[in-house]
Design a protein that fits this description.
Number of helices: 7
Number of domains: 1
Radius of gyration: 17 Å
Shape: globular
Low-confidence stretches: none
CATH superfamily: Vaccinia Virus protein VP39
Mean pLDDT: 94
CATH architecture: 3-Layer(aba) Sandwich
Order of helices and strands: HEEEEHEHHEHHHE
Distance between the termini: 46 Å
CATH topology: Rossmann fold
Number of strands: 7
Largest sheet: 7 strands, mixed
Structural class: alpha/beta
Amino acid sequence: MLNRAARYFPILRELRQYTDAGDGILDVGSGPVGIGEFWPHFFVGCDVSFAVPPQKPMCPVVCSGMHLPFRDRSFDVVVASDVMEHVPPENRPKLISEMLRVARKVAIFGYPCGLTALALDKKLRADYVSRMMAPPLWLEEHMLYPFPSEDLFRDVPAGWEMKVIPNESLEFHYWVMRMEMRLSVNRLFRLGLKLFPQVIEFLLRRADREPSYRKIFLLIRQQRVG
């Protein structure tokens, strides 16, 4: 629970900065909840399938991120949080291209970044195995492909400017994930988020430093003058 807040809270801060009331938001690879866990406003979530019925305020769409069934610039903001590492490396440029195509203002990409993040997840998986616990499905999927690095956005497409935000220090991320292996601690994190969300967000923000487990890339469409 705290891990999901850690990766979504920085994105929500950017959403508040770049969106106005009524703006359209698309969450790519959302699963059944997506940003709706912390974002109370209507948004569209898409995924290749939904294991359980999607929850409000999401409007679900079944599709691949490589082939988004939307017109150019259909959404003011398009988000993909912890999606890119699940995509085969050869398909990642296509996913980026599709998200930029349908984004009118901003496209936000957050993902575990580089060799150090992958090494940390391998260590975490070994912790699950040593405790005789089944690693979660998302962690098993993290073992399938090399994690994308910053080089994925080395060349910013024409007409866009980029902002990079470090998200979760490696040390903090590993501590949180080990703590969340305990059901009682997970419940405590959930209670803290419910009772003291602003305090939790402040503390999580202090953990957004290098060397980071995840990086968040904001691509902001430049507005034409005249």
